[in-house]
């Protein structure tokens, strides 16, 4: 089977880019041919990872005779070209991560919205990571959907451990109870999307203790001026609250999150908007208790807190601290599904290789 994947390939590291990296690895393990057309800057010709302009990409697709074209790209212009892709007689899949697709439909003018709907109806399968997206699409007549979370089990590699700074490992080794979280500095509804501000507030309780927080900050180089200013204020707050020994803001450049997650006692995802939260599933896969906001469907076993409620978050963190062995045993009994098998079944059924 010959597959082309369109989206972000790390770096930068994030939920979608790590998902694409893992899909590519697992396809290669099965002996399939894979090309990634990276929306970012990274490319590696020997590994079939390309970063090329749209016109060259279309030319490449035309001459490569792919069985499957799988889009993860949230670029509105590229989505409008999905109908054109069908003219190449390839099977086309679109994965909708989070709310981006629904938001684009809601924000589009009438003509572009109609054009997007025609395009979406023409493709073979739309994979929605949450049921809300599938339900919304269904109300406007788009029925070619299925629901499948984006979580895929990590493909562990020694390089992933070595790529993490020794400063991080020293910080981790000094912790008696390690809380981990990750996310970029972004705003949603004028609030901190990934809840870094809430996590800093929660850590005030543990000043002088060996309870520590490592927050893996993604995409620092891509921050807007507003985001940079906000991030600097948060870093200053850590200093002003005398939390330097309790809080590490690790600016991720070229490393996956799972090695840090494996070393954690608790994972927290205090997002105010989300699609699912693959890091939560990954935490539970490693038998790490996980706390997350109640803004969307979460993986089985997640401890839920109220959205943007620091009191609720503090209470749940303290609960896990006091009942850690019980919570660890609880999540160890949960079987976390690896969704690659379901994705591969879709590939096979569409390509006729099943």
TrEMBL record:
InterPro entries in alphabetical order: Glyco_trans_1, Glyco_trans_4-like_N
Residue ranges annotated for the Glycosyl transferase family domain, each copy included: 195-301
GO terms, biological process: lipopolysaccharide biosynthetic process
Pfam families reported in the protein's UniProt record: Glyco_transf_4, Glycos_transf_1
Domain Glycosyltransferase subfamily 4-like N-terminal: 13-145
Keywords for this protein: Transferase
SUPFAM superfamilies xrefs: UDP-Glycosyltransferase/glycogen phosphorylase (SSF53756)
Domain of life: Bacteria
GO molecular function: glycosyltransferase activity
Protein name: Glycosyl transferase, group 1
Species, as recorded: Vibrio nigripulchritudo SOn1
């Amino acid at each position: 089977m010959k597959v082309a994947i369109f989206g972000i390939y790390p770096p930068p590291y994030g939920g979608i880019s790590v998902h694409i990296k893992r899909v590519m690895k697992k396809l290669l393990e099965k002996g399939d041919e894979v090309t990634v057309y990276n929306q970012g800057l990274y490319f590696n010709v020997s590994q079939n990872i390309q970063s090329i302009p749209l016109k060259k990409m279309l030319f490449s697709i035309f001459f490569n005779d792919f069985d499957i074209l799988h889009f993860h790209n949230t670029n509105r212009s590229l989505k409008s070209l999905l109908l054109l892709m069908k003219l190449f007689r390839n099977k086309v899949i679109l994965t909708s991560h989070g709310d981006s697709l629904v938001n684009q439909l809601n924000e589009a003018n009438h003509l572009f919205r109609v054009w997007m709907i025609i395009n979406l109806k023409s493709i073979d399968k739309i994979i929605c990571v949450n049921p809300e997206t599938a339900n919304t699409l269904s109300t406007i007549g788009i029925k070619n959907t299925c629901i499948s979370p984006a979580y895929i089990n990590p493909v562990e590699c020694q390089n992933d451990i070595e790529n993490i700074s020794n400063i991080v490992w020293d910080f981790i080794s000094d912790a008696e109870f390690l809380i981990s979280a990750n996310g970029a500095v972004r705003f949603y509804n004028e609030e901190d999307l990934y809840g870094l501000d809430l996590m800093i507030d929660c850590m005030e309780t543990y000043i002088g203790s060996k309870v520590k927080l490592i927050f893996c900050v993604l995409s620092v180089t891509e921050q807007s001026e507003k985001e940079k200013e906000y991030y600097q204020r948060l870093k200053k707050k850590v200093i002003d609250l005398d939390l330097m020994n309790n809080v590490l803001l690790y600016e991720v450049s070229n490393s996956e999150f799972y090695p840090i997650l494996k070393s954690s006692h608790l994972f927290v995802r205090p997002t105010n908007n989300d699609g699912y939260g693959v890091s939560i599933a990954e935490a539970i896969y490693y038998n790490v208790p996980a706390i997350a906001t109640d803004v969307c469907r979460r993986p089985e076993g997640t401890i839920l807190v109220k959205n943007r409620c620091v009191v609720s978050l503090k209470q749940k963190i303290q609960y896990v601290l006091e009942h850690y062995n019980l919570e660890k045993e609880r999540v160890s009994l949960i079987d976390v599904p690896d969704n690659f098998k379901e994705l591969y079944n879709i590939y096979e059924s569409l390509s006729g290789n099943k």
